[in-house]
Amino acid sequence: MLWLAGAEPLPFFRQSGVTTDSEGFMLVNEALQSVRYPSLFGAGDCVSMEQRPVPKNGVYAIRQAPVLWENLKRMNRGASLCSFRPQRKYMAILSTGHKEGLLSYGNLAVHHRLCFHLKHYIDSKFISKYGT
Fold first, then answer.
1. 35 in a domain, yes or no?
2. How open is the CA angle 15-43-50, to the nearest 5 degrees?
3. Of 12, 29, 30, 103, whose CA is between 20 and 30 Å from 72?
């Protein structure tokens, strides 16, 4: 059995007056700007995209990060902003214990020890970029 709780919005967004989706996540445009306050940016699980909703998972958060960083620099320079264009399908791997993993990609789902090893390889490669 898997019990996945999912992302939960912080009450701060509704209390602060930023525009939120129906669940309370900050609503952003394709440039990852608050739709109400253009100088406020957000990415990952704390936001919902106004035009192209995406699942709240690390795949999109990681892909939004470079766009967020670039747009913060561009905003500071007064330059035009980039848009985040989410991919349609993505691979997700969940470690299920005993060195096994559940891999999903679109309609495909596989549970196997090789999935765990692939996850470990991908995660290790990602972390090694940061000098650990």
1. yes
2. 75
3. 12
Amino acid letter, 81: L
Count of domains forming the chain: 2
Domain holding 52: CATH number?
3.50.50.60
Closest of 57, 4, 49, 5 to residue 26, by C-alpha: 49
Which of 24, 33, 34 is closest to 67 using CA atoms?
A: 33
| In a shared domain, residues 103 and 72 | no
pLDDT tens track, the chain, 132 positions: 666 677 899 899 999 999 999 999 999 999 999 999 999 999 999 999 999 889 888 889 999 999 999 999 999 999 999 999 999 899 999 999 999 999 999 999 999 999 999 999 999 998 998 875
